[in-house]
Model the fold of this input.
Amino acid sequence: MKATRIFKDKAVFPDGSIVEMVIWELPEPLPPSTHSLKYRLFYGKPGERIVAYDNERGKGDHRHFKGRQTRYRFVSVEKLVEDFLGDVDQARSEA
Done:
């Protein structure tokens, strides 16, 4: 069984910034993550990442915000999207 995309959404703001969220269901966890999801949530402008949440083999769940990468504790898809959109709102209000 291969990865199955379970969610995709993209929006472009009038200022040209982009919010894109993609989540896949995997047949098994992607180490060191313990859940069976692969995700990529992005907010930025062409060539500029402002906020991003993702997980990858070897790195696990992590967050990019204000130029820093930190670990992220994955709880659920709902919490992931809530945390990401909260960071997007904060970044947009500071711009």
